[in-house]
Amino acid sequence: MIYFDNNATTPILAEVRDAMLPFFETEYGNPNSVHQVGNRARVAIERARNQMAGALGVNTGEIIFTGCGTEANNQAILGALLARRGRGKNVVISAIEHPAVREAARWACDLVNAELRIVPVAYAAGAIRLEPFTQAIDANTVLVSVMYANNETGTILPVQAIFRAAKTVGAWCHSDCVQAFGKLPLKPRRFGADMITLSAHKFHGPKGVGALYLKRGIKIDALLHGGGQESGRRGGTENVALIAAMGKAAELVGTGNSDHSRAIRDYFEARLAERMPDQAQINFRDLPRLPNTSSVQFPGQDGNLLLIKLDQKGLCLSTGAACSSGSLSASKPLLAMGLSEEQATATLRFSFSRLNTKAEVDNALTMLETVLKPQSVAASSRS
Ligand code: PLP
Fold first, then answer.
1. Are 172 and 192 in contact (CB under 8 A)?
2. Which pLDDT tens digit goes with each residue over 250-270?
3. Active site residues
4. pLDDT class for 373, splitting at 50, 70, 90?
5. 94 CB under 6 A from ligand 1?
């Protein structure tokens, strides 16, 4: 089996698995208990918080652990809007946000009676255009939420410049960095974010644990009220095992050194161009992209059908965001970035990790060739 679907989720590294196992066995303490068993669990959480803060170059008090990236996005957006509620406000997001931002923003804006402004992602001369964002931001903008890198296309957005514009009107700035962390060097202070979202399973940690970086001084409303955990910012007994694993994963991959996956991705694209020059086309190649992601169009093909055939051969890919795979509608971010319905449905996403190899790329391309030419192979074998 060849796994090129690392933007959907990544395999857990052995060191990361080892970091969480004790908490399913001997270290079962509740981190809020005062005795020694509880204290060891508390120490593990604070170690993980240190690891996260170290990877991001922020203070430990600025990290809140959550149940997933989706929760962190909901917490950031609704928490900020509740804290800044009032009529006549607006929220600015990009048209290619993950549903965990888009739907959270829709819901939160409805709840507090704010206007949601969804900004088209236009590009020219190899760069995403800034003006649609600067035009959408005005004196009533309370929150700007723009992802650093898109999960489907790998496109990197100019968050630093967008946030600079947002700051001039006093808006708070949130970035969904779920796909960027571990793939790009990520220092939220450098690009002016007040909040960023992370999810462990995208960087070789387990599913079901995320984190929100919340800049000191930014006071958002908590969504989960209870026993005062996470300094009153997220109630609920902490998931010690998963948090410990997230910290370990951040320590291992948090520098964002993607030399290996970049080399694999570049090898894939070069070999694809050699072996299938007329059958495949790389989307958004001229734009800044994540080093591990290749969005590839196979003109005239049905991406969902290709996906199924390749899966039968042992190659795991995605047609879009993992949560929307299986639905037959074209991917929203692909359409929002100017692809036609036909082009979007003919697109497959290849996303690599530090664990992939060039041999896997060669094998995957052979599978692809076979799947793309079923009739001619069948016909020639019959004649
Ligand atoms: N944001 C982006 C960009 C993602 O790719 C994902 C996962 O697909 C999420 C948020 C949601 O993260 P989680 O799966 O931890 O809820």
1. no
2. 999 999 899 999 999 999 999
3. 323
4. confident
5. no
